[in-house]
Amino acid sequence: MIAGMELDDQVCYCFHVSKRKILNYIRLHHPRRASQISECGGAGTGCGWCVPYLQRYFRESQQEQISEPELTPAEYEAKRAEYIKARKGQSSSEDEETAASE
Ligand code: FES
Question: Which ligand 1 atom sits closest to the C-alpha of 50?
Answer without folding.
Answer: 2
